[in-house]
Amino acid sequence: MTTYDETMPGDPWATLEESPEDNGSQRKAEERSWRPVDLTDVLNGTYVTPEPTVGARDDGEGLFYPGRTHSIVGESEGGKTWLALFAVARELRRACGAVYIDFEDDEHGVVGRLLAMGVTRDEIRGHFAYLHPEEKLEDLDKAQRDRGRSDLAAVMEDLKPTLVILDGVTEAMTLFGLEIKDNGDAARFARSLSKWLAGYGAAVVEIDHVVKNAETRGRYAIGGVHKLNAITGAAYTLDNRTPFGIGRTGKSAVMISKDRPGQLRRKGLSRGAVKGFWYCDLVIESHGAGAVTASLPVPVEGGEGGASRWKPTIYMDRVAKALTGGPLSKRALRSAIGGRAEYVDNGLEQLIADGYVSSKTPHGLLKSYTPPREDQ
Question: 12-305: which CATH topology?
Answer without folding.
Answer: Rossmann fold (3.40.50)
